Prior knowledge:
Strand order of the largest sheet: 6-3-7-10-8-9
Number of helices: 8
Shape: globular
Amino acid sequence: MNVTSKAFAAALVVCGLSAAACGGTVGGATAGSARNDSPVSHTVAQATEAAPPAAATPPAGKSAPARPLSGKVVVIDPGHNGLNYKYPSKINKKVNVLTQWKACDTTGTATDNGYSEAAFTWDVSQRLAKILKERGATVKLTRSDNSSVGPCITERAAIGNKAKADAAISVHADGAPSSGHGFHVIIPKKINGPVDPVVDSSRRLGLDVRDSIKSVAGLPYSTYIGSKALSFRDDLGGLNLSTVPKIFVESGNMRNPGDAAKFQNPAFRQKLALSLADGLQKYLN
């Protein structure tokens, strides 16, 4: 469904979009996406391009490609959900993330022309899942479509815990002021809680994924938050409640024209998925 710029702007006001939508000021910098911390406007554009077809079966006499991730379990958490905006009473319900109480989820952010973060994260996550499965990993996603609601951030963490994942990754895109661009990786802090034993391994995971995004996807480090594309936080339920190594990836700033153009390019989304897969594989191996 299409929305006018005026309607979209009104939705932003209703949902409370602000420069602190990603959870407020972090380390002196302001994050702008709606993690699950404060509701942000709904958007409706959906990614329609399918992921590329699976690799062809090797010719007779040729060996099948190696499956370097056999036996590994990876949980992918595509941020938000496509219909969150229709159910504010559900997604605004407060849940305990141990350091504070937060909304169950948010709508996420969007590009200026209405391509939603939920659609972007769903598309990239589908592509990532396909690559990881081809490499032998067992892959679980925290949501099964982009046309429903939730789940809550507490449930998203629980899915990774229940799966006893070797690694978990939450895919997002930011909604910061348009002057900022580039990606960053969010890594958990110790909070005297369940995430503490995996903080160090989460940091290693974050470094491997960061390096791969830079080298494979060719994205620059964020210019507006973090240091060398790393941001350490203790206010995200998806991290605080995780008992498995987990990170958030803010793929870039959807409100920046350059980043937004990349996000809407299927070839770029495939390259980003590949970079995430390579980073995960480096960590897991």
